[in-house]
Structure formats: C-alpha cells, structure tokens
Amino acid sequence: MPRPDEGLIHAWLDGQLPTEEAERIEQLVATDAEWAAAAAEARGLVAASSRIVAALDHVPRGVLPQGALAQRTGRPAVRRLPWWTRMAAAVVLVVGATTVVLQRVPEPTTTPAPQVKQELAVPKVEPVVVARVPAAAPARTVQAEVSGAPRADRALAESPAIAPAPREEALNRAADVARRDVPRAEAQHMEAQRGVAGGSAAKTVASPAPPQVVGGVARAVSASAAAPSPASACYKLLDSRTSVEAGVIMRLARTDGDTLRLEPARLPSPMRAWVVLRDGVSRGVLTTDADGRGALVVTATSVACPAP
Amino acid sequence: MSDIERLFTTYHAALVRYLTRRLGDRDWAEEIAQETFVRALRQEQLVNERSWLFAVASNLVRDEARKDIRRRKHLALLASEMQDAHVEGPDTAMERALDAGDARRALDALAERDRQALLLREEGLDYPEIAEILGIAVGSVGTTLSRARRRLAEMYEAQVAQRAQRGHHAAS
Is A287 a residue whose pLDDT tops 60? Predict the structure, then answer.
C-alpha cells in the first residue's frame, strides 16, 4: 500500500485526475485509514483556503491615497519639501504676489494646468506664476479649471501644499513610474492638451498640431467624423451589442499606441474606458460605476466636446 | 477578436476578483483587468482564452515595478483603516475587516507561485491551465496547491491566534 500522496489527493478532490487514477485514489481512501485521514485533512484544507481567500473580497475602496492612482495613469508628481523650504516659498509667494498685483496690469484669472503643477513641484516659484494663482483659491476651483486634464493632473491640482505622508509617498512613486513609463509621444500630446486646458488665458496655447496618435487611432478618428485635434477630441460611447449610448461623452485623456484612454468630459465621474481600433472600428471596455459591476464593451464615435 | 463581448461577459468578474484578491486593491485590479481585455481586443484569436486572460493579467501584475513596496504600504494603510473601523464601524464590519486583514497577511506569506496557483484555482481554472500560466508541469500542480493550502491555513490560524493574544493583553 503506497503512502498517501498529498498532491494526488488534492488533485483528486479537485476533480483533476483521469478517471482510472481517480478510481484508484477513491479505492485507497475507502480502504486505507491513513489515506482516509489524509483525504479528510485535505478536504478541510481545501474548504479552509477557499473561505480564507473569499475573505479577501472585503476590500474597502479608496484605501490607497488618490495620488497612488496617478501611478497607474503614469503621470508625474511632486516631492515634499522640508518645512523650512515650504515656509520660505510661502513668504516668497506672498511678497511676490503682493508686488506683482500692485504693479502689473490686470491679467486673466484662468489658470493653465501646467502652471499649477509647476508651482507645486518646483521650490523656486516665479512671482508671475503666483499672480495667476490666487493664494486663497480653493482647490476645487483649480480642479474645475483643469477638468480637461488627465486624472493625475487633477490629483495634483487637488493636492494641498502640505500633503499627508502616504499621499506624498504615492505621488513620489508616481513620479518615478511616470519618468520611466510615459512615452515621448504621449508626453508631447499631453503638453498640447494642457495648453488647451488653460483656455484663452494660456500664454502659449498649443497650436492645432497634427494628432500624436498613431496608426489605427488616427484612422479611427478620421473614419468616424471630422478629426478633432487630440487636445479636444471627445467620443460618444455606444454599447456595442445594443448600440445604445452609454450616456456620457468621454474626453481623450491620453494615447498609448493604438489605444485611447478616455475619461468623462465632465468630472467627477467614476467612468473610465480604454478603446482600441480593430478592423476599422474603435471598440473598448468601459467601466461605468465605482464598483466595476457596470462594465461593458463599447464602440466609440468621435463627437464635438461639450462646452466646459 | 470578434468575440470580445462574450469574453468580457464570461471572464470580467472572475478576472477582477482574482486580481483584487491578488493585489488587495479593487481599483488597481480593475485597471489591470481593463488593460487585459484591451490586449485581448488586439488578438486575432485566442486558443485557450481563459488561461490567456489570466496569464496576461498575471504578467501585468508581475511587470509592475516595485509592486511589493506598494503592497506593503497598502497593508499599512489597510491596517490603519481597520483601526479606524474599530472606533467607528459596527462589530460585523470590524470582524470582517480584521478577517480580511488576517487573510491578506496569510496570503502574502505564501511563495509567489503558490499564491498564484491558489488564486487561479479559486477562480476555477483547471490544472492544465494553471500549469500553462505558471510554466510548471501539470503533475506538480496538485503538490503546489496542497502546499499552498496548508501554508495558507497555518498562517491564517497563526494570525488569528496572534490577534486574540493581543486582544487578551489589551483587555488585561
């Protein structure tokens, strides 16, 4: 009589043995006490591990700080500065802002997204930049102004000057990943997008440069409608099975080869989508709610972006 | 991939569940699941679609640089959140959160291959599929799973005992 083989018993319990082998193990378990005990123990382990693994499903949402999500979207972030540097920067900000406000002619109040980020990221802040960012401006106002920017930019815009440590660490990680991962073409595209996000107030509005999208994406855009520039491209998503509208206009957040990353044109919204061109049709996956239950396969059609 | 809707309907929930269990973060899991289906869209055809999807998802997870660091940070955050839940949440929610914490720590104590085999099996993948994804012989999947299950149960029991001991010390 062979000694009980634990691996074999688990394979038997999992129903993964060929019929003959399964019958042999069944016979051993029925006739041999040692095999019977091993099988009973294995049954307990199978049940216990299933229960333990199922306990992993109770994962609270939003445990990771918002900034950590930037890591997934590959956007750069900021490093936390020492307190004395922040203090000095604050003094420079106040003095600079006061000086410029007293001396300069009125300027537009809208703030281009990249300037906000620059202020957060670079310790040496130019007074001109400060003048365009009211020190008392609430974060939500800034967010509204950069609503066309991708998620990581929004996270940055929302982040307070002195962030809690976990968020800051996540942002630092995001910066590292972004430096490593973001392709040059995408970076150029995002630069153009930021220029437009600033609207008419931006000093250097990106000219309607040719789309940075490549291959199939460019064909997808031109095939469906007059191709908008990547900075303003928006898409209507249809359930690919029923052709019913998914109910939201999505804005192009970034491109990755022949893949479009879409986010809702009007934020906040849990929706997000990836769309890829295949056989002349842009199809993709849309997650429609925060629980991920409302995910569906969609086709994308280029449309005019809604007014901000 | 003309059959993407069927593929999506059939496997999306399982893939997100597998990834959530593996990563401990639902948002991250959904991101990777989406990326996996986008890659499927690019394929002309998939021979073994289920193992292909889970293999690609597993590779995407593996390719994430510094995932271990992030997972540890996540655990720390989860632990602090559970402490908050202790103060605010109802008993059942608290118990569930603690249970999830114990399960997470027990799972993290497994070797990567064992952990993957276990989670793939829990999603109903058969031994040849698991062997293909892990790059091991079909004959060794049973051994891998038996080791993983035993270790998981032991580690979980140890976590529960440790927590009970801490609670006892705190009470006295």
Answer: yes
Total number of domains constituting chain A: 3
Domain extent at residue A86: 66-201
Tokens of B78: 């989860």
| Domain boundaries B67-171, corresponding CATH code | 1.10.10.10
Residues B23-34: what's their mean pLDDT? 83
Kindly report which listed range (A49-53, A66-70, A233-237) carries the lowest average pLDDT score. A66-70
Question: Taking CB atoms and an 8 Å cut-off, how many pairs form between chains A and B?
Answer: 157
Shortest Cα distance, chain B CAs vs residue A200, angstroms: 34
* Cβ(A127)–Cβ(A96) below 8 Å: yes
Predicted interface score ipTM higher than 0.85: no
What was the pLDDT predicted at A214? 28
Q: Is A299 within a domain?
A: yes
Residue A30, pLDDT score: 93
Is residue A230 located within the same domain as residue A163?
no
The CA-based angle B35-A228-A210, given to 5 degrees, is 85
| Helix, strand, coil percentages in chain A from 3-state DSSP, rounded to 5 | 45, 15, 35
Which amino acid is present at B164?
Answer: A
Q: Is B146 on the interface with A (CB under 8 A)?
A: yes
